[in-house]
Write a structure and sequence with these properties.
Domain Antitoxin Xre/MbcA/ParS-like toxin-binding: 71-120
Oligomer: single chain
Shape: globular
Number of helices: 8
Domain Antitoxin Xre-like helix-turn-helix: 21-62
Order of helices and strands: HHHHHHHH
Protein name: Antitoxin Xre/MbcA/ParS toxin-binding domain-containing protein
Organism: Rhizobium puerariae
Distance between the termini: 19 Å
Structural class: mainly alpha
Number of strands: 0
Pfam families: Xre-like-HTH, Xre_MbcA_ParS_C
Largest sheet: none
Amino acid sequence: MVAHAFEMGAASFGEAQSSFLSARRVSELLGVTQAELAKLIGVARNTLTAKSGARKVDLALSPVVRILAMAGEMAGDERRAAIWFKHQPIPGWAGKTAYDLVGEGKADKVLAYLEAVRSGVYA
């Protein structure tokens, strides 16, 4: 299921004429600047736009795209997923949102939470 969500996300967030994910599309959906997105995923701001940084950005963006794709699948669309990602506290994480947890390097925890919810286990 995670692979399916990622494939959908890759299709939605891909860069035109490229096999890499688009930082611009992700930042637009989330309503954040490129600098804020760079900080969130742990890369330098100029790495987002450098051709030589495409592979590194792709790797760093992958967990965010997987989360947004899975949340979008569950919520019905990408906009709702983005709102949830930025604003909805995740139970058991002291009021932290998916955005907060990703910024702390805990994207895997967000993905595990979404998998549990999708499986019918509510935290």
